[in-house]
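so my prof wants the structure for this chain in the tokens format not the other one, which i didnt know existed until like an hour ago. anyway here's the sequence
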Amino acid sequence: MGKSLDNFYKNQTRIYKYILYVVTVGLIVFFFPRGGKFKYDYQKGKAWQYENLYAPFDFNIQKNLSEIDEEKQELLLNKASYYSYNANIATKVENDFADVFAKHFGAANYSMAERERLFKIGKQWLSEMYRLGVFKNREIEGRPYLIKNNEAILIRKHQVLDVTSAKQYLVNLVQDSIAESVRNPFKTSLQSVIKPNVFYDEDLSEKALKDELSKISFTRGTVPEGKLIIAKGEVVEAENFTILDSLKKEYESEVWDANNYYFILLGYAVLVALVLVMLYLFLMRYRPDIYENNIKVTFIFFNILLMVFVTTMVVKRVDNYLYVVPLCILPLILKNFFDARLGLFVHVLTILILGFVVPNSFEYIFLQIIAGIVTILTVSELYKRANLFISVGQITLIYIIGYFAFHIIHEGNMNNIEWYVFAIFLLNGMLTLFVQPLIYLYEKLFGLVSDVSLLELSDTNSKLLKELANKAPGTFHHSLQVANLAEAAANEIGANAMLVRVGALYHDIGKMNRPTYFTENQITNVNPHDDLPPKESAKIIIDHVIAGIELARKNNLPDRIIDFIRTHHGDSMVYYFYKKQQEIEPDTEDEPFRYPGPIPFSKETAILMMSDAVEAASKSLKSPTYIIIDEFVEKIIGGQLKAGQFTNANITLKEIETVKKVLKKKLTNIYHLRVEYPE
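here's what i got, hopefully its the right format
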């Protein structure tokens, strides 16, 4: 049992990676839409690359969305609108007319015969008018039906009268048929009683519309089993493209049944597992420092999962808006925290995974890979806001150009361009700008450091650097000089210049504890080391590395910066005090006089070691010349090479030579050397 636990603790990092791998594969497959995968890949406007395709079974030809929308629009334009007829209101109008008529024509100056004649005419007109009824308003949609006596009567729109048009209709009748002497009171009697008695029946109309919409067929025709769908070499055009799409949907729905469910899941799992194995192999072979760090590996897998999850959700719900997912955020983030090569590699692997689930997978993979390459090539120094905006603009332009090209291939012309797609690409670009706050969030969640944070740390007005300037001004000035040298060298060999500059600014903060024990801070001729034995002096000098690490952790400096403090002396010796001790004790061991290490393990930490040693030792030069500086730099860095300080750093001899040239040039400028003219 104890041995098993020991093995577990020894291999817990590897076990964690296995668990992360299995969980990631499982989640990705879980996110995938439930459906089989059609075994043919085709595109509109391109030739059919496979053998002749015959219908494997009977299937219906599915209508496309535009056809269904057209049928819906046609149905909405001609929908049945139902209006209920209220007979009680019609009766009341006639009764009201009798009362109003009696009031206006009850005077003695109207004969009985005249009154009866006018009343009869008015009642007849109202009766005819209310046979179809008076509508509440005249805005009629579709085909109007009047529900009267439990019977639906189709009426014509020109027959519809509302209150206003009914009154005007009566005015016209009175004007043409009634004597002028009684025209006004008769017209007033009729108009005053007009009321609407036909009202829109919303419930019945909506129910009828739903019934009609439910009858819309989503298919048009059937393809019998064995019929030739498309021949080899034939161009995929509108009609056979629709038939192929219909076969694809039918095939995927039939394949994904209870019998095949687990086999299809297994197939997806194997393919996703292969892709993620490639990622692990890449990290092991080319990024071992990242592979050994479980937090960084988790960060990479988390971002892959996030992109797969968001994209599959969009595919399941609104696949027309697939390109709204800002997939280029992935290479942006990985380049910012790691490097461009890893960012592009992970981006391509993620796109390969998504190729299983997106429609038009070739088009999607092509556009996203091109956009990812543009992202990697154009985005540099992300902490500069203008760079991000320029890069996002270029990414959006690539999407638009790619869409134009594919549209021309599919359609053969510029017609029928769906302009809303451009809005989707613009929205994609706007969402890509969200990478800045996302980087900040990731820094807090995963403890990583980005160029934006490095820019903040490089501010010499920060608390820690101000404290260094006050307590150890000589060390602060030395750190600034080393930062300038290291940054120039890093730029020359393509290393992370911002990272090495910040590392240089903080590499000697441990000297704040005992500043006067370091020569750059001694402002008098008194040297406290004169009163100490060499071993104790060496311990004080060496301890500034440990003190710097503790101080950095106390002030929450990122681990990437602490690495510079740990490695800037490697496991080199405090040679001066070692030699002094040898004068006292010839058989002195060198172990107490060595820095604890580790030795540099990256280009940046190697550059800092070279720059620090050269800058510090250059203070001893009395009368520097070109030759002296050249020999001096060669001697310092040659000694470091001979001591094996750069064995673990991924820096080449050619790059070391380049760093030497930069340091020589910079020292020459610092000492203001001029060309010596002959006398």
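also thought this was worth mentioning. The CA atoms of residues 329 and 432 lie 6 Å apart.
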